């Protein structure tokens, strides 16, 4: 390799192979990588007169390309990761030395706390970092800094434990930048997040600074071990000024001009602050309804959908990506058929369409009775029933279950008696056919099972619909303003606010937390204190969201890495755990028992943690509106029922059950919503595990992105034969088993689950097979108590994926 290179300062020098060989050997230390093979691959990328930065980039590219072809992917990935860190931290070190004239370690952090504090205060003054850091006593801050950033004993977690895609994701997606380059290290992000995450424990709840130091160090440990994975808004904002830490929001719009306009303003504020939006529009009157006593003047519901879609697109998420909006409509609404078509540019006027909206249909159980009996189903104008006919006793808005069915049947009688004018008579199976049609073409609509979601809800109030990823929801009643310019505080409504932090099931398993109830209990208590603290420091975009946090204090632990946990457990026990036990000819009860043990134990420890927080901090007013007031846990487990008590005692022990019961009776609950299962598409890459609780899509993922080659693979690739990837789902029994697993998880999750279903058209290759599968999953999910269905993805015969996903919660 006898050629010249261009140095960073512009000088031209002969290429010194010894320098590059030294870096390669350091990065390969302790790893099973063939350096001769790497040198051969690297030679393909080198050329004369390259810059040193280009050489470093090609080192990384060569290493990543070998991940694709080699079986020992983890070693090659860690090798590539170290090359990334060498390049990134060298650049950080050079920039900091030049700017601050300070001593900086080879790891990129400042040797002296005073220099770091000077850096921090500079960006506080610029409005980048939060002023809350200035409330931490300097001596406390300094001690914690040196405990973590010790130049002689730095733990260097990314170097020792991470794979390349984790570090790539962290650097590209989550670091604060100035002039298109990060100003901070990943380890500094964890440190700053830990500092702010436990500041309310001292400032608001009377803990001392010694307790604070213990919590900060423990939280940094959990973050650096990838046990706790903050949701994207926390990763981006938990250290920044005016930080929104919530992922998404759900609103409803009332049937008047003031509410329609006010809701549009709220959506604009939420979207511009990078929040995803869920919107329930079932209260709006349909086409052909009355306006000021004149029939036939009301617009189609799709006209309002178009306005709200335009709003999120105009107020995009801080200029980084389009805003995201799911709009929900009940299946009995007169405009439901047009609503299903609103995403389809091939039908009707293009200018009336909303292709960027994620449609969601709210379906009560009584609809399926009409389907099964093949009886005519009436699409109705609820405004006509409640306002024109004056039958407010038949309002379906705030009721569900048997009462909703009774009211709907009364409305049908009024129609058949000729008393109702604005309705449509349809075959209910035609509605399902249209839903199935768009599942096949667009992967939408989402389905929200109204009765499952409310019967098994921890709340007394009805929940209208779900959020963008259908896994997080609680009651919401938006402001119904009389005057847009002056909304009094006592007349403010409240909108659902998602406050999510994720946990890594594979890491919890590998580090012994899932086998040790005491250790898991300590982890869960820490997690819920942290999440409850975030409610006190988040800067939310609208007042109604702040009110919801005050009333309900909803915080949820999300889960990722279930597919990997199944593999790890299969390897350890020597028997199969997974998603396809019928095809594998294994015992499905083993998998279902494992889910009960993992999710059940975590769930009841979460309830215990929230009762202890209530003891220390008090209960919110929403506790009085929850089923916890009646001794019902997670919306379904009654402490007065012996079978429920036995289950809880089996999972967390008699002593923990006794404490839970005493705390609940005396102090209530601090948080009224505790658990959910989001898709975690982006943050799971950061954690290095499979996304959410669904099967891995495939063993490896390779993309040639604008920023370079991206390769992802399952974390336990060396045991790849244990993985049930979606590419292998080939029979109805596979989806029946999958639905059983999701239903078992749902038993212990008081929120929802992003139940995303992927279909491989190499196996389901006819319309009849596809329709049968759609009907099977829909029927099983509803009957087994699952609260919602998320996307349908399609693997076409050329192995491409046909449906893009929304980015709000996932990314």
Please tell me about this protein's structure.
With 811 residues, the protein is an alpha/beta fold. The protein has a domain at 499-538 and 554-754: Anaerobic Ribonucleotide-triphosphate Reductase Large Chain (Alpha-Beta Barrel), CATH 3.20.70.20. The strands form nine sheets. The chain has a seven-stranded mixed β-sheet with strand order 16-7-8-11-12-15-24. Strands 2-1-3 form a three-stranded mixed β-sheet. A three-stranded mixed β-sheet has the order 6-17-18. Strand 1 (4-6) and strand 2 (12-14) form a beta hairpin. Helix 27 (642-652) crosses helix 28. Residues 803-811 have low confidence and may be disordered.
Low-confidence residue ranges: 803-811
Q: Major beta sheet, specifics? A: 7 strands, mixed
Corresponding CATH architecture of the domain at 499-538 and 554-754: Alpha-Beta Barrel
Question: Quick one: overall form?
Answer: globular
In CATH's first tier, which class of the domain at 499-538 and 554-754 applies?
A: Alpha Beta
Helicity, as a percent range: 40-55%
């Amino acid at each position: 390799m006898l050629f010249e290179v261009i140095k960073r300062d512009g000088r031209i020098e002969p290429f010194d192979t010894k320098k590059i060989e030294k870096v390669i050997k350091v990065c390969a230390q302790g790893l099973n990588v063939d350096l001769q093979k790497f040198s051969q691959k690297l030679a393909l990328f080198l050329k004369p007169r390259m810059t040193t930065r280009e050489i470093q980039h090609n080192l990384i590219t060569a290493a990543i390309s070998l991940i694709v072809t080699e079986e020992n992917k983890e070693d090659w990935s860690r090798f590539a990761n170290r090359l990334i860190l060498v390049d990134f931290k060298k650049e950080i070190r050079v920039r900091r030395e030049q700017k601050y004239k300070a001593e900086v370690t080879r790891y990129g952090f400042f040797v002296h706390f005073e220099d770091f504090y000077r850096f921090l205060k500079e960006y506080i003054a610029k409005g980048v970092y939060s002023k809350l850091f200035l409330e931490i006593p300097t001596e406390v801050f300094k001690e914690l800094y040196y405990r973590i950033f010790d130049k002689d004993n730095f733990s260097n977690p990314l170097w020792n434990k991470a794979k390349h895609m984790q570090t790539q994701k962290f650097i590209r997606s989550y670091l604060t930048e100035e002039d298109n380059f990060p100003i901070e290290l990943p380890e500094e992000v964890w440190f700053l997040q830990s500092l702010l995450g436990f500041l309310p424990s001292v400032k608001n709840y009377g803990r001392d600074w010694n307790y604070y130091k213990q919590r900060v160090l423990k939280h940094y440990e959990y973050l650096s071990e990838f046990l706790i994975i903050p949701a994207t808004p926390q990763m981006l904002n938990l250290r920044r000024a005016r930080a929104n830490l919530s992922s998404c929001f759900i609103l409803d719009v009332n049937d008047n001009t003031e509410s329609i306009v006010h809701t549009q303003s709220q959506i604009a504020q939420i979207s511009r602050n990078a929040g995803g939006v869920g919107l329930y529009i079932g209260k709006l009157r349909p086409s052909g309804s009355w306006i000021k006593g004149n029939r036939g003047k009301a617009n189609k519901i799709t006209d309002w959908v178009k306005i709200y879609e335009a709003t999120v697109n105009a107020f995009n998420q801080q200029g980084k990506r389009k805003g995201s909006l799911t709009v929900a409509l009940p299946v009995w609404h007169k405009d439901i058929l047009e609503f299903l078509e609103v995403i389809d540019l091939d039908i009707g006027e293009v200018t009336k369409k909303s292709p960027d909206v994620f449609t969601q249909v709210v379906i009560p159980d009584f609809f399926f009775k009409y389907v099964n009996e093949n009886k005519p189903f009436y699409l109705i104008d609820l405004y006509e029933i409640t306002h024109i006919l004056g039958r407010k006793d038949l309002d379906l808005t705030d009721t569900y279950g048997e009462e909703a069915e009774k009211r709907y049947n009364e409305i049908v009688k009024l129609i058949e008696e000729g008393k109702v004018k604005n309705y449509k008579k349809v075959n209910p199976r035609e509605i399902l056919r249209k839903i199935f049609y768009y599942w096949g073409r667009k992967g939408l609509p989402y389905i929200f099972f109204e009765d499952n979601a409310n019967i098994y809800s921890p709340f007394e109030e009805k929940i209208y619909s779900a959020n963008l990823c259908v896994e997080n929801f609680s009651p919401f009643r938006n402001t119904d303003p009389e005057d847009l310019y002056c909304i009094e505080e006592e007349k403010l409504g409240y909108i659902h606010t998602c406050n999510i932090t994720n946990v890594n099931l594979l890491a919890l398993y590998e580090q012994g937390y899932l086998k040790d109830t005491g250790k898991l209990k300590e982890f869960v208590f820490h997690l819920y204190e942290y999440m409850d603290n975030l409610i006190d420091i988040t800067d939310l975009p609208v007042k109604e969201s702040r009110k919801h946090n005050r009333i309900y204090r909803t915080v949820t632990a999300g889960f990722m890495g279930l597919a990997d946990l199944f593999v790890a457990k299969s390897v350890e026990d020597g028997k199969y755990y997974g998603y396809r036990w019928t095809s594998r000819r294994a015992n499905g009860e083993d998998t279902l028992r494992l889910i009960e043990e993992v999710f059940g134990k975590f769930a009841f420890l979460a309830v215990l943690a929230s009762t202890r927080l209530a003891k220390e901090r008090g209960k919110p007013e929403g506790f009085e509106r929850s089923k916890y007031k009646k001794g019902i846990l997670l919306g379904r487990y009654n402490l007065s029922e012996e079978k429920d008590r036995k289950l809880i005692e089996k999972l967390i022990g008699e002593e923990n059950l006794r404490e839970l019961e005493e705390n609940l009776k005396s102090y209530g609950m601090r948080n009224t919503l505790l658990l959910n299962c989001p898709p975690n598409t982006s943050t799971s890459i950061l954690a290095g595990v499979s996304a959410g609780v669904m099967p891995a899509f495939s063993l490896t993922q390779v993309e040639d992105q604008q920023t370079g080659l991206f390769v992802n693979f399952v974390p336990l690739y060396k045991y790849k034969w244990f993985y049930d990837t979606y590419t292998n789902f080939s029979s109805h029994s596979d989806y029946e088993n999958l639905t059983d697993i999701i239903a078992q998880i749902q038993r212990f999750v008081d929120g929802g689950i992003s139940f995303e279903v992927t279909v491989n058209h190499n196996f389901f290759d006819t319309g009849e097979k596809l329709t049968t599968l759609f009907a099977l999953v829909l029927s099983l999910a509803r009957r087994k108590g699952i609260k919602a269905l998320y996307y349908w993805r399609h693997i076409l015969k050329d192995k491409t994926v046909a449906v893009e996903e929304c980015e709000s919660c996932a990314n």
